[in-house]
Please model this.
Amino acid sequence: MTRAVVSVGSNIDKESNLPAAIAALQQHDEITLIEMSDIFESPAIGGDYPPFHNAAVLLETELAPGELIASLKSIESALGRVREEDPNAPRTIDLDIILYDDLHSAELKIPDPHLDAYAFVAIPAAQVAGDWEIPGRNRTVAQVAESMAAGELRKVDMSDKKEISRDEAFEEYGATDESFNPRYEALVREQLEILGEDPERDGIKRTPFRVAKSMSFLTRGYTQSLKEVINNAIFESPDSEMVMLKDVEFYSMCEHHMLPFFGRAHIAYIPDGRVIGVSKLARIVDVFARRMQIQERLSNQVADALMECLDPLGVGVVMEAAHLCMLMRGVQKQNSEMVTSALRGSFKSDARTRSEFMNLVGHGLR
Ligand code: ZN
Model:
């Protein structure tokens, strides 16, 4: 996960467009909002235009900078943003990446040069990322903000709540009649009714929406491909020692009961000329875990995926997991975990490799 700061600004229908942009960021599958600044009002620059509302958000994402820019652009166009010739023309919404991890790219304008120039960018950003050292500037966001005169910037009393919880914020910002996946939501409503609930009850009214959203996240493996996840992170290497990554946390859903099972994966391989970035091992587990699964198949798919993309001398995968379908239904009262393994190549054929692997894994077993 990478952190980024995004500035949000509007001077057309700003009372509804700014919150709608926050809600859209909130709904985005690959963006997690962590914090939002206060909302500030500031005069427009470069013309006799209505004043702006500005804010900044701190977010976490696995999107690359270019992908994040594209996502922000699509939110802008969904909110009716039209690009005019006059760069200062009023706009429904403006979403710009201010900071992205330690990226310093003149081409992408990250860090955003406006951070040094305008209080309406720096002051909200300092509220959510004050300690962030600006790449290439040798100063923190707070230091930049402090060096600026607030001028005509004034705080707008719209929200005293800066902490955003992923579930609540959507309602907080009002877009309550929005739907995420109408067909799935209708199904969940019916399910609630069949179970004996009143789907119109206040606390539960938005549940079909939330379930549709969270299910789409929990089963996102269906829409991911191994190739895009690996994204060229395979490197030539003469190493031929066992590479092992222990305790990769994973969450999956059992296909028999649609209940979660979750635990840790331990993954090892012996390279034959090619290695893969360590973080990608966890992403590969995720591609197969984020769908309906059985643990045995999940272990096999991870092992086969590594064989396919690295063509190594061998692969070993051990997964330990607790299954809620066993724990919650009382099939198994104690906190027992299920352990599965998948061995390929030398991990299968060579007893020494296998026992080296199992020894390494063994120390991780609880
Ligand atoms: Zn089950």
Summary: The chain has three domains: 2-172, 182-220, 225-361.
